[in-house]
Design goal:
3 helices
Length: about 100
């Protein structure tokens, strides 16, 4: 279907952010101490970057959904919420680990 392939690429970007946030989360809660890999600036900046870029992608898909006949893609909204949840979770876990 014409115009629907853009949703594939936006989903791919969101999946990459979710995968990288999960890797950071798993490394932070792993029994091995990776204290030198993470600092507050890295976790905070990556979480902020993931949320901002994902939010912009969701806004773009909203505009595209108005122009394409079948409408938008609900999966992208769910992926954004997962990205937001993982970003906040990473910040909370890092704050608890460093105390």
């Amino acid at each position: 279907m014409e115009g629907m392939e853009i949703y594939f690429f936006i989903r791919l970007i969101l999946f990459i952010f979710i995968l990288s946030l999960l890797v950071i989360l798993m490394l932070m809660i792993s029994p091995l101490k990776h204290k030198k890999l993470f600092n507050g600036i890295m976790v905070g900046m990556f979480s902020a970057l993931a949320v901002v870029v994902s939010g912009i992608n969701v806004i773009i898909t909203g505009y595209l959904g108005d122009g394409i006949y079948p409408g938008g893609d609900a999966l992208i909204s769910y992926l954004f919420l997962i990205t937001l949840l993982l970003s906040v979770l990473n910040l909370i876990i890092y704050a608890k680990i460093t105390k």
